[in-house]
Amino acid sequence: MKVLIAHNTYRTRGGEDAVVENERRLLAEAGNEVIYFEKSNDVVNSFFSKVVAAAFSIFSPISFFQLVFLIMRTRPNVVHVHNFFPQISPSIFFACRLMGVRSVLTLHNYRTICPTAFLMYNGKIETRSINKGPWWAVKKRVYRNSYFGTFFLAAMIDFHRRIGTWRSSVDRFIVFTEFSKTLFVQAGFPKDKLFIKPNFVFETARPLASTAGVAYLLYVGRLSEEKGLDVLLRATRALKDRGMKFELVVVGDGPLKDSVQSEGETLKYLGKKSSDEVVSLMRSALAVVMPSLWFEGMPMVLIESFSVGTPVIASNLGALAELVDHGETGLLFEPGNQTQLEQCMEVALTDSTKLSRMRANAYGKYAERYSAESNIRYLMEAYK
């Protein structure tokens, strides 16, 4: 099969970029021919370029004709789109329809529904865009604190909802969980076009990280309010005040970096680490903690953790509640509930029998659902 993958990369490499790289490699290793069409936000750096990018995010004639000519030249069987915002734009789906090529869109986040992209505003879940549309967000300047940027993003969402782009111009949507599928159906996406395919990671034989005999729990991710770091830090301090001996190791960067660094002996802050280093740290951790206050999509951190047999302690919310089997592949707690989080952390620190069982189950879940071998089957089914 010949697959054309289209992706607008992010200025700072994130989980979506990693997913695209993994799927390109997966398809190629399975014997498919992969063509890659990429736009980069790095070129959007002047005021004029930002104005043009914002206006063309609704429909880019440049990307439209680039895709038409690329499809004419390469004749792919399917065009698989990941992030189209802002430079590729939904014009790519009209190019596919014009050329008679099947199109597939992976819905990594909720940007086709809401300008926040995460259904979250001011630290709280915000779902009004699902039923009432995106225009409330303009006044709140939810996109980079900009009226201008938020206006064009809301216009893109509203325009394509009104003309039926998602109903008539995209052949299939890939979502990661049943939870996200339900939200997109509520927002008007055609249920019969939504296909559940989880993300995956390649299994690797990385060496164990050295922990010098110190038991530790691990947080990996953006250091920001919606990730629930505050409750994790409070729970850690409370457990240490009760005399429990362990480390909380924190990996990542973000707006709360200074606050995290000021915690002193409460945690061990490692900053940003490479993918190999992160997975090595996961392998030696008792558990990975994900105290998110928002729905999440399909966190690569969770899949990487399962791939090395490390259970996950997560908020009982959104996709995480679906991905973690409580007591089997990890532990769930009420979002923001410090007492419940302390209890989950204490189980990981003290109940070696239960932890051993969860480790085995976590790896088993990875092999069944999130391995390369299982994912290529899902991907081929999505392309049919």
UniProtKB/TrEMBL annotation:
The chain crosses the membrane at residues 51-72. GO terms for molecular function: glycosyltransferase activity. It holds the Pfam family Glyco_transf_4. Keywords: Membrane, Transferase, Transmembrane, Transmembrane helix. Residues 213-363 form the Glycosyl transferase family domain. SUPFAM superfamilies: UDP-Glycosyltransferase/glycogen phosphorylase. Residues 18-201 form the Glycosyltransferase subfamily 4-like N-terminal domain. InterPro entries: Glyco_trans_1, Glyco_trans_4-like_N, Glycosyltransferase_grp1. PANTHER family: SULFOQUINOVOSYL TRANSFERASE SQD2, TRANSFERASE. This is Glycosyltransferase involved in cell wall biosynthesis. It comes from Pseudacidovorax intermedius.
